[in-house]
Specification:
This protein is α+β, with helices and mostly antiparallel strands. It has 4 helices and 2 strands; from the N terminus they run H-H-E-H-E-H. Helix 2 (29-37) packs across helix 4 (95-126).
């Protein structure tokens, strides 16, 4: 969801790529549904983090809630930041309860990720002469 949000709303200044350590091969339909509700049509794939280890990034943002257990230490190029979000895919219950979990996380992502990127942009501008 973070990749789709950044690319749809902040694409002029940032390009996001998303990956995980246990990709399923498809984007969760509830993630696609929650994004569609805020006007973002996402067409993507579930990718493994190893796909990007040789790529160079300005910033790598990990978003998994339990980083020590589920997210690898980033050994690629790029400054690493961590923002903790619960994994909505782990929520059980009715279809509506599951979708509601994705909505909550997307709402939080919609505030925290852009704020982090704005902070990084200000830092880059402040360091230039």
């Amino acid at each position: 969801m973070a990749e789709a949000l950044v690319n749809a709303r902040l694409g002029e200044g940032w390009q996001a790529f998303s990956a995980g350590v246990e990709p399923t091969g498809r984007v969760n339909p509830d993630a696609i549904g929650a994004l569609a509700e805020i006007g973002i049509q996402h067409v993507g794939e579930s990718k493994h983090v190893n796909r990007f280890l040789n790529d160079e990034f300005d910033l790598v943002v990990t978003v998994c809630d339990d980083a020590a257990e589920n997210c690898p230490v980033w050994v690629g190029k790029g400054k690493r930041e961590h923002l903790s979000f619960p994994d909505p895919a782990k929520v059980t219950g009715t279809d509506e309860e599951k979708l509601a979990a994705f909505r909550r996380v997307l709402s939080d992502i919609s505030v925290r990720i852009p704020a982090l990127l704005l902070e990084k942009e200000r830092g880059l501008q402040g360091g230039r002469s």
